[in-house]
Specification:
Blueprint lengths: L5 H46 L2 H31 L4 H18 L7 H20 L7
Helix pairs in contact: 1-2, 2-3, 3-4
Length: 140
């Protein structure tokens, strides 16, 4: 086997650090976004209680909480990458499912065209099948 030159070794080491640096930046940004998302959910809960508009307020609160859950799942995916050096597909499928459910909450089914509705149902089905068939990866 051929040994790499010192310059090539340096380049390989440098480029192997790039994903770790980018994932660190993403983790920091997701942390900031998650904090703001939780604060937004708390504000919406207080606003719902003070206005006594539970019908509309509850949908807004659920929407905000599902966004927070999506952010947390993405954050967990990044932290798993730090530990294992690979991305867990099942976690991304769960984040996608949560995001689609969150999106469905804002639909007014009466005004959505049938193609959009069928596309959403198909996307939900694919995500659910993926979650069922992709086995959780064993912990190291």
């Amino acid at each position: 086997m051929e040994k790499n030159s010192p310059v090539m070794e340096y380049l390989i080491n440098f480029f192997s650090l790039v994903p770790m640096i980018l994932y660190t930046i993403v983790a920091i940004l997701l942390t900031i976004i998650a904090v703001f998302s939780i604060l937004d959910a708390v504000q919406l809960i207080l606003q719902m209680i003070l206005s006594h508009d539970f019908a509309n307020g509850l949908v807004s609160v659920l929407y905000a909480l599902l966004l927070t859950i999506t952010i947390i799942v993405l954050f967990e995916t990044v932290t798993v990458y730090f530990k294992t050096k690979h991305v867990e597909v099942r976690a991304l499928l769960i984040a996608g499912l949560t995001a689609v459910v969150r999106h469905v909450l804002i639909y007014n089914v009466a005004t959505v065209d049938p193609f959009t509705l069928m596309g959403t149902v198909a996307l939900l089905a694919v995500l659910i099948v993926g979650i069922v068939f992709v086995k959780p990866e064993p912990l190291p």
